[in-house]
Amino acid sequence: WGQNGHRIVGQIAQGHLTADTKTALLPLLEGESLAQISTWADEMRSNPNTFWQKNSSRWHYINATSEQGHFSHSHDNSEHKETVSNILEGMHFAINTLKNPKSTIDAKRFSLRFLVHLVGDSHQPFHAGRAEDRGGNRIKVSFFGQPTNLHTLWDSKLIENENLSFTEFAQFIDTDNTQLIAEYLASSPQQWLLESHNLATQLYKLETDEISYSYIYEHTPVVKTRLQQAGIRLAGLLNKIFDSSATPL
Ligand code: ADE
Ligand code: ZN
Ligand code: ZN
Is the ipTM here above 0.90? Predict the structure, then answer.
């Protein structure tokens, strides 16, 4: 997602943290909110001559193979940041670092920043798209006559078209529905990516490359559901890591 998508996910998650989780996060957040730290992982990529500029772009996505449900990842080989080669390994790495009592505070701080970002990206359908078109980046479309691509349409155009601040957007799509929340939480990072992959498979079948009202009307609800799921699931993950007494809701 673009900046607003990530901030919306962070903002929704913030409202679903338990008191104990909030307390545990204080030293890691250093006065910032989950929305504020959510875009750090993208900002780091433009920091010249750093590990992150050279190595982290692959942390943001995964390309599925033709076989449904199987991603080309080497599973829990993600103990060191140097070995992370896709978003699933990135999430595992960040979760493991946050759980490990031996991790330094700096390692925990950047793992939290990455986790908030990557849970968001794992819900963007085209972050689990096809390798050959770079997750839709190479598929040209127009948005109300302006040239863009399918990936950017989903990262930001459909969100920006709503003309809401991230706090307004988060408020509009947040939910207290305990049934829905329980459903969202009963899934793993691998399943979130499979959901994204299945959505992308449908979304690659474009009826027209001229995107306007009818496409927006049909697909903005999907964007909203994915951002809502990401926010709830991020909170669920953080509560599980930081609050041993947290109930699943
Ligand atoms: N960004 C760059 N390459 C990508 C890919 N293959 N899938 C998704 N996002 C990408
Ligand atoms: Zn993207
Ligand atoms: Zn990203």
Answer: yes
